[in-house]
C-alpha cells in the first residue's frame, strides 16, 4: 500500500523543533501575563458565518482561503483562518464586555488558510494572538503594539520594523473609497486582473497589491490621511505620540490596509528584514466594527496576531537563543538482568523527587544503555555487587568520576550534585 503523507501545506513539528516552539510560547505567555492579558482557549472550528460576516466577504481569506465544509448535521463549518473573530464571538457570548467592561485576552494555536505553500506560508500555521476588547482609546492601541514589540524583544529578534497606518472608520472610509475608485478607474488599463476584480468591491485592497505595475499606480493614489475624519485623525496622532513617548521607532505606510475588512483606524505590521517575501511576523490593528458585524453590541477592540512559524524562521536565521533544551538528568543502567527491577524502582523514586530520570525498557545491553546515558549528566549503575549492598554506582558523565551511594540516599545526592553543577 502507498504511504500516506501529511496534506500539502502542513507539516509535523518534530522533537528537535518542538521544544523551541514551547520556548517561544512560554516567553510570549509571560509577556502576556506581565501586560495583564489572560489566556483563553477557543474552538478550532466555528460557524462559517462568523468569518464571512466578521472578516468580510471581499477579503482574500473569505473569498478563497477558507477550509469550509458541511458537517453531518448539514451546518456550514469553517476551520478558523484567524483568531480575532473567534475571540470577539467568545466575548459577546460570555458577556465579557458588558456595561463598559474591558477584556484583555490572548491565545495561541493553529489557523488554516488554503494558500500556496512556500517558505513561511503554510496551510496550517500557528499564531500567537492578543486582543484588547472594550476600550476605544488610542492608549489601548499603543499598549497592544508595545506588547507585540515586547514579545519580540524578549525573544531576541533583531532587524524588525514597525509599520503603521490608519484606515479610517465607517464615517470617513466611504469618502476615501470613492476617491480611490475614481483614481483607479482612470488607471484601469494597467491594473492586474485581481485588482480589476477588486475595483468595485474593495478598491482599498488595490493599495496592497504586490504586483509591480499596480504598486506604481498605487503610489500615486490619493492619500488616506487627507480623508480621515477629525476623530480618526486625532486617534492616529495619539497612537503616534504614544509610540514616540515610549521610544518606539516606526514607519508610516499609507498603503498598509491589511487583508481584513474589520479594521478601523489603526492598522500595523511588524516586518522582519530576514524573511524574504513572507516578511510580516505580526499584524494587527483596531476593529471597532467587528462586534456589530457579528451581531454583538458596540465593543471596540484592538489586537495583533504573530506568526509562530515565521518567528521560528527568523530566530533560527538570527541565531537567537531558545533557552535550555530539555534533558534527562539521570539514566539508570543495569549491568545484568537481575538488577532490572531495582533500576526500574530507582527511576520511579527519582521521578517522585522531581528529578528527570529514564532507564531502558527494551532489555538492551549494558553498552547500549550507557550509550543512551551519554546524553545525560549522571548514570546510576546497578550490578550484582550494588544490588547486594542496596546501592548504585553514580557516574558523573562529564568528568567520569564514580561513587557508591545507598539507593535511599540517591535522590538527595543527585539534587545536591545538580545544585552544585548549576551554581
Ligand atoms: P501575509 O501578508 O503574509 O499573507 P496576512 O496579512 O495574511 O499575512 P494576518 O492575517 O495579519 O496575515 O496574520 C498575522 C500573522 O500570521 C502574519 O503576520 C504572519 O506572520 C502569520 N501568517 C499569516 N498567514 C500565514 C501562513 N499562511 N503561514 C504562516 N504564517 C502566516
Ligand atoms: Mg495572507
Could you outline the blueprint of secondary structure elements for this entry?
Blueprint: H1 15-34, E1 38-39, E2 45-47, H2 48-54, H3 60-65, E3 67-70, E4 76-79, H4 84-93, E5 103-112, E6 124-133, H5 138-155, E7 160-166, H6 173-186, H7 193-201, H8 212-219, H9 230-245, E8 251-252, E9 264-272, E10 280-286, H10 290-293, E11 301-307, H11 308-318, E12 330-334, H12 340-352, E13 357-359, H13 366-373, E14 378-382, H14 384-388, E15 391-396, E16 402-406, H15 410-422
The structure holds adenosine-5'-triphosphate and magnesium ion (MG).
Give a description of the structure.
The model has no long low-confidence stretch (mean pLDDT 94). The protein has two domains: 15-172 and 228-317, BirA Bifunctional Protein, domain 2 (2-Layer Sandwich), CATH 3.30.930.10; 330-415, Rossmann fold. It is an alpha+beta fold. Strand 3 and strand 4 form a beta hairpin. The protein is built from 15 helices and 16 strands. Helix 1 (15-34) packs antiparallel against helix 5 (138-155) and helix 5 packs parallel to helix 9. The protein has an eight-stranded mixed sheet with strand order 1-5-6-11-10-9-7-8, with helices on both faces. The chain has a five-stranded mixed sheet with strand order 13-12-14-15-16, sandwiched between helices. 39% of the residues are buried. It has helices at 15-34, 48-54, 60-65, 84-93, 138-155, 173-186, 193-201, 212-219, 230-245, 290-293, 308-318, 340-352, 366-373, 384-388, 410-422; strands at 38-39, 45-47, 67-70, 76-79, 103-112, 124-133, 160-166, 251-252, 264-272, 280-286, 301-307, 330-334, 357-359, 378-382, 391-396, 402-406. The chain binds adenosine-5'-triphosphate and magnesium ion. The site of adenosine-5'-triphosphate has 20 residues, from strand 6, strand 10, strand 11 and helix 11.
